[in-house]
């Protein structure tokens, strides 16, 4: 019924605040810088994605990993002809992205304020520890959350570990996020509740087939404020 | 008396396993690669340290941050004349460092095995989440630890947060580590116990003045196995 939920986990990037938009801006600038060496933005982006995927196991998520992959891609696709000044610019692009303003998504503050009165809320995110802590501080949302869980990945085993740590059963946990692959599918897989709030852009690495996801423990919503209605009325009852 | 200790935190890098040695090896190789642009290794290392210090707030700790600072330093000290092939080599040096074998320090396994029977042991480390988790997995020490705490920094406020999270008082906590600045001084500062096990090399950023540290809650040892004697006999009694 969803009435047994005790802890609600919120993904951070593109669920609470803007993130992917900044990656796309950096990538567009990167494609402009590299245009003289390798034609279209599509080709350059495809090469970048190849590098990121190959580096994922070693580097993991986050802007530092992204910046290193940008430099590596620039060298490879230019056959080492990319200028040193351009590499310097790429390093600066990464730093600029780490310093971007924190922009909350609509209704986030209101829904967290309301839910924090009845549930234990936590941030469940992957990526760079320092960067995520910095964003949470900038967001002024810290007081709504019991704590922040930063995981190196969001697979079923990671969520199982999280629930053991929280000392709760899967049916007492609900996850809210914008990535089917990281926030929804693994949580449903271990028996928890999951609410999908799509963001207008999703990184290719995070995409998944939506059509196969269904069931009484899953909901898709268009505004994060609907999470309050869902948990307060019982997930299944209103589903 | 030290008999009230319930949780023992172990720093990881250069306390449980070799780490700084690998940074020094990468740095030596970096100095060789850059020698044609800027004379002595001492000068190059000083420039690198300057870059790392300037980037610390934005990048934090870990090998990805280090690699980005290496590239930035190479560009700066060569006035952008460093070859693209050398930059490629620097990126590869960083990846090689992330893939280094895990080498445990002497007596670590024995002392953890012994202490884990009577105390809750945790790993308390900063740096890169993915990299630290990977090292802990490689170490085969996971079963001795209740969990791993990865913090973005190790200041007094970070330890206070940790103790709140563990739901214990400072006098119930002892920290063991090789960095006076990160493992010893802040823990003594909040009223906990601290055991200093120096490693043969310490990164300049982590050094501190040892002479000012004393008191019944502090001990310096030369082998990690001595931690067992200290806690089993009472810290103050044997101090």
Could you explain how this protein is built, in words?
The structure is a homodimer. The radius of gyration of chain A is 19 Å and the shape is elongated. The mean pLDDT of chain A is about 90. Chain A has helices at about 20-35, 40-60, 65-75, 85-100, 110-115, 130-140, 155-165, 180-190, 225-235, 235-239; strands at about 5-10, 120-125, 145-150, 175, 195, 220. Chain A has about 240 residues and is of the alpha/beta class. A 6-stranded parallel beta sheet of chain A has the order 3-2-1-4-5-6, with helices on both faces. Chain A folds into 2 domains: about 5-15 and about 105-239, HAD superfamily/HAD-like (Rossmann fold, 3-Layer(aba) Sandwich); about 20-100, Putative phosphatase, domain 2 (DNA polymerase, domain 1, Orthogonal Bundle), CATH 1.10.150. At the A-B interface, α3, α4, α6 and β3 of A face α3, α4, α6 and β3 of B.
């Amino acid at each position: 019924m969803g009435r047994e939920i005790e802890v609600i986990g919120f993904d951070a990037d593109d669920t609470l605040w803007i993130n992917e938009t900044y990656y796309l801006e950096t990538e567009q600038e990167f494609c402009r810088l590299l245009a003289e060496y390798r034609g279209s933005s599509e080709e350059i982006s495809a090469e970048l994605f190849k590098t990121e995927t190959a580096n994922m196991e070693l580097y993991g998520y986050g802007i530092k990993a992204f910046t290193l992959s940008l430099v590596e891609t620039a060298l490879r696709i230019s056959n080492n002809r990319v200028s040193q000044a351009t590499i310097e610019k790429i390093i600066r692009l990464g730093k600029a992205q780490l310093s971007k303003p924190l922009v909350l998504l609509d209704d986030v503050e209101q829904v967290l304020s309301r839910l924090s009165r009845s549930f234990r809320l936590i941030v469940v995110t992957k990526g760079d520890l320092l960067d995520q802590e910095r964003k949470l501080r900038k967001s002024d949302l810290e007081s709504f959350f019991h704590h922040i869980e930063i995981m190196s990945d969001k697979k079923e085993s990671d969520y199982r570990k999280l629930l053991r740590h929280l000392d709760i059963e899967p049916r007492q946990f609900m996850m809210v996020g914008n990535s089917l692959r990281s926030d929804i599918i693994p949580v449903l897989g271990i028996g928890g509740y999951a609410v999908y709030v799509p963001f207008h852009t999703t990184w290719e690495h995070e995409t998944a087939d939506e059509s196969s996801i269904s069931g009484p423990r899953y909901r898709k919503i268009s505004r994060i404020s609907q999470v309050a209605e869902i948990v307060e009325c019982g997930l299944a009852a209103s589903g």
